[in-house]
Every structure is written in C-alpha cells, then in structure tokens.
Amino acid sequence: MSYKNFPMVPRVVFGRGSFNQLNEILAPKRLNINAPFIYLIDDVFKGNEWLTSRISLSYDDRIIFISADEEPKTSQVDALVEDIILTTKERPSGIIGIGGGTLLDLAKAVSIMLTNEGETKDYQGWDLVKNPAIYHVGIPTISGTGAEVSRTTVLTGPEKKLGINSDYTPFDQVILDSELTKDVSKDQWFYTGMDCYIHCIESLSGTYLNAFSQSYGEKAFDLCKEIFLDDSLSEIESQEKLMMASWHGGMSIAYSQVGVAHAMSYGLAYLLGTKHGIGNCIVFDHLEEFYPEGVKLFKEMKAKHNIELPKGICADLSDEEFDIMINISLGLKPLWENVLGKKWEKTITPAKLKSLYKKM
Ligand code: NAD
Ligand code: ZN
C-alpha cells in the first residue's frame, strides 16, 4: 500500500478530573477474576495518595511502580513481561500506563509482548508484531511526547534505539486529565513541552509534509507559541493546552516524520543516556541552518523561562564514541529523507554530524 492505513486511538476522555472515571472505564474490560489489571506507574507517584487512592484494586490487580530515570529498554520489557506471566493466573485483562513518555512506552511494549513470542528486541522496527496486544490504556502525567497517541513505543535495545512501530501499538483508551501534570518541575515541563514544539517544526518543514500532517502540526505549533510565549494563560489553561498540543504534535508526525533534532538526539541517548526531551533541546539549539525560524523562537522561549541547557556534553568523547553516535543517527534514514529529500546523503556526511555534535 503506498498510503499508510494507520490506526488511531479509538477512545479518549478529556477533562480535568477525568482520571476519576478510570475504574468505571476498566470494569467492563475485566475478562474474569483471574485476569488482573496491571498498572505501570511512574515511581514519582509512589506514596502519592492523591493519585493512587483513586485506583481501586480488585482480585489480583497490581501496581508496579517504575522509575523514569532511564528511558525504556527492551531488556526491561522482557523482565516485566516475565514477571507478569509468572505472577498472574491468566493473561491480564489490561495494562494501564500512568506517567510520561517512558511509562506510556513501557505499557505499550508490555501489552504487545504479552501476546507475542520471543524477545522485545526482535520487534524493534516497522510492522513486525504478529498478534494484537492485550487491552492497554495510556494516562499521561506530563505533556509533550505524543506517546499517548502514536503508533510507536521507543525502546533502547542492545543494538539500537528504535520503536516498535505497529498497528497494535496505539492505546485502546487514553485518559487526558491535565490535573495529573500539575506537579511537573519547570525544567522538565520545558524539555518535554519542547519535544512537542520540535515535532511541529520538524514535521512542518519536512519533505514528507502533507495536508493531514500540516493541519495537526500547525495547530500544535500555535498552541506551543501560546503556552510558552503568552503570559495571559492561566496555569490550568496552559496545562490543558499543552496536553492537546502534545496530541496534535503526535498526530502530525504520525503521517510524516521527525527530523534532525530527533535523529541526532537518538545518538546522544544511545551513547550517553541523554533523555529525549532535554536531548532534543540540546541538539535543536544548534540547528539554525536547518530550522532558522524555529530555532530563533526556541531561543526566545528558552530565555523567557530561564532555561539553562547543559553545555559541553560531547567535549570529552573519543573518535570511536563520536562514530557510535553518528552511526545511530545516520541509520535513521526516513528522518533524514524527511529533512532533505532523497539525496540527503550528499549533505549529511559523518564529518558534518561530527562537527555538529562537537558544538554540543
Ligand atoms: P519521562 O516519562 O521520562 O518523565 C520525565 C520526568 O518527569 C521523570 O523524572 C518523571 O518521573 C517526571 N514526571 C512525570 N510526570 C510527572 C508529574 N506529574 N509530576 C512530577 N514529575 C513527573 O519523560 P517524557 O519526556 O514524557 O518521555 C520521554 C520518553 O518518551 C523517552 O523514552 C522517549 O523515547 C519517549 N517518546 C516516545 C514517543 C512515542 O511516540 N512513543 C515520542 C516521543 C518520545
Ligand atoms: Zn520526540
């Protein structure tokens, strides 16, 4: 098929306090008393009664708190799946991911790997998943990645950082309750919010752009400008708008692609463990030649919110280490093709990438 026939999240609830409806939403999805719901929750919420007291656990339902300090790994998914299989009487009724992109991606991957044989790393790529995932629900607690709406779950494996892109990846249900984002730290709010802004810039200036992507990308871009540059929004308005910007940004790249910042920050993530949001910011800050207007506005937003990005993170790297990052980045061919078209390899050489990485 030359045009992608891609799935969208079939059910979504939006609204402040809508998290209260979770139990009601899940109840009809319970297969039987031996098939529990498993909640994967960012451990930043451990001991947070405000959130956890609203989850009613029945029968063998279980909460697993997971740290988001490191981005999800294929081995981590394998271990979680094994643990769930060993400790449940039957295959779970559903997996509920509560957190940022890290927890949402883990929930998607675990729900896929509970019904597909073998190791998670074997499914990194496009359309390798054979069996439908079990029912999975995404509840973002920080906005920007678009992981709540996307067809991928980004994982670091032994050889690559690459998503499981499949028709079975998107959530069956998403709950968008902006109140859950109220305690995000300012720096993290900026980094993850900028992930959304960068999705828009990369999608809107890419060669893959089409009216579908553009319509979502432009909306998300306008929302980002309001959120990060306009002082008139209330805190609640700003949180609600960023939640929708994230959604639209994710929809925009679903039907196009990201670009230079993502291609290069994947290299930083793989070698140095630099997290997605901050990594994108570090790279994007140096991409004037690719995105002049977008970078100018980014610098304005950065200054307005007094954000200091780390400097010199590549200062002490060896030639071998640069090569590792460059190879990861150059391997993301669709991203480069989106930036510069089919002949991208004429411009994007290892030397070019090295000179850019050296600035960071
Ligand atoms: P994250 O999930 O790693 O969370 C960032 C930090 O914010 C963590 O320390 C977390 O504990 C904290 N946090 C989250 N919610 C909070 C809250 N309500 N209050 C206080 N602290 C909170 O960050 P992220 O930027 O959302 O996600 C990054 C991940 O998303 C990366 O692994 C990246 O690869 C992935 N990603 C996936 C997609 C996709 O389409 N699947 C798209 C972009 C990024
Ligand atoms: Zn991103």
From TrEMBL:
What are the residue boundaries of the Fe-containing alcohol dehydrogenase-like C-terminal domain, all occurrences included? 191-293
Single GO molecular function? alcohol dehydrogenase (NAD+) activity
- The reply to whether Oxidoreductase figures as a keyword in the UniProt entry is yes
Q: Which UniProt keywords apply?
A: Oxidoreductase
UniProt domain Alcohol dehydrogenase iron-type/glycerol dehydrogenase GldA: residue ranges: 11-177
InterPro entries in UniProt: ADH_Fe/GldA, ADH_Fe_C, Alcohol_dehydrogenase_Fe
Protein's name in the database = Alcohol dehydrogenase
Q: Which organism is it from?
A: Siansivirga zeaxanthinifaciens CC-SAMT-1
